[in-house]
Amino acid sequence: MPRERRVVIVESLLTPTQFRETVCEALLEVLNVPSVLFIPSHLAATFPFNTEYALVVDVGYVETLAVPLKHEFASAFAHSLVIPPVLQIAESVTMLSCWELSSVGSRRLEDRVRELLKVHGRVDSGDGVRELKEDDWKIIEDSNVVEDICVRFVFCCPFERGQAIQANGAEHGLPPVKSVKVPLGAEFLIIPGFVREAACEVFFERSSEDPSIGQMIHTLVERCPLDLRKLMFESILLTGGPTLIPGFLGRLKEEIADIAKTSASKMKQCESIRFYRFPNQTTELYLGWLGGSMFGALQDAVRLRSVSREAWLEERILPDWTDYVQHGIPCGKPELDR
């Protein structure tokens, strides 16, 4: 029953305050749940790795958001409450002064696949090979063929090959990649090897207005304090579907190293780039949910940082995660003995 369960919500770091307050009203005033806790998705993604520092890069469908996290102890609150060791994983905060945002994401990848197919895609009708027609595109969109291509057939090529593709397109002069065929009604859609390897360049095309993922990470670390830069490069946590594309990690590492060589700072810390990964890489698709469920299992931690129904009805204040860590319990009365 809702009235018997505390609610833990894993939210985007950029969730509007009005939306959060509306959710609180619905849960606390209509459904009468005991309490509500909002956890930033970037922070929740670090819980399964039990790390105090991380640079979390969430490559989503519409955008990519990168945020560094560091361990933060409550000052005055720490003197009045002894925090059990099991709760120490919850003492990290997002460094909002250093976050980076880009419109690069899965949607951009799908758009790039469509652009490449319009130029290079062909249809095998059985009697010969022809170019794509308008009727073919209707089948492609209705059958989600573009999404299928992004999941099954694209890959990130090495740095040198990627640079050649960006500079010369299909005329890069390198050994070709094998083409593949997928069903298209009663015919087959031919996906040239160039489409498979060139589509993912959308993640690594550098721009001053809309940075690539490598540029985002380098710029973000550059803005971090000096003592945290090496830690951040050694603690990169990637989440989101595109990060599972074959070759993504290796190419991203090469991109960051190359950007560092040409930047004014020439950060040597980027020589020790490391990624947090599980052996079963599909967990990167739901790291936020996994971290939220782990935190929800810690009853004391949930009670400590939740907004209770009584406190909400009395004060109607909804603090964010950083308030909890730095100032203790700013909303309502604490539920743990001090």
Quick overview:
The protein has 338 residues and is α+β, with helices and mostly antiparallel strands. It has helices at residues 17-30, 41-44, 76-80, 106-120, 134-142, 145-152, 159-168, 193-198, 213-223, 226-233, 248-262, 287-296, 299-305, 309-315, 321-327; strands at 7-11, 35-40, 54-59, 64-71, 92-94, 100-102, 122-124, 129-131, 180-184, 187-191, 236-239, 275-276, 307-308. It comes from Teladorsagia circumcincta.
Q: How many individual helices?
A: 15
Say what the CATH topology of the largest domain is: Nucleotidyltransferase, domain 5
The structural domain count equals 2
CATH homologous superfamily annotation of the largest domain:
ATPase, nucleotide binding domain
Your description of this structure?
The protein is of the alpha+beta class and 338 residues long. It has two domains: 2-104 and 210-327, ATPase, nucleotide binding domain (Nucleotidyltransferase, domain 5), CATH 3.30.420.40; 106-203, no CATH class. The protein has 15 helices and 13 strands. It has helices at 17-30, 41-44, 76-80, 106-120, 134-142, 145-152, 159-168, 193-198, 213-223, 226-233, 248-262, 287-296, 299-305, 309-315, 321-327, and strands at 7-11, 35-40, 54-59, 64-71, 92-94, 100-102, 122-124, 129-131, 180-184, 187-191, 236-239, 275-276, 307-308. The strands form three sheets. Strands 3, 4, 5, 6, 11 and 12 form a six-stranded mixed beta sheet that branches. Helix 1 (17-30) links the parallel strand 1 and strand 2. Helix 9 packs across helix 11. Mean pLDDT is 84; it is low at 73-87 and 326-338.
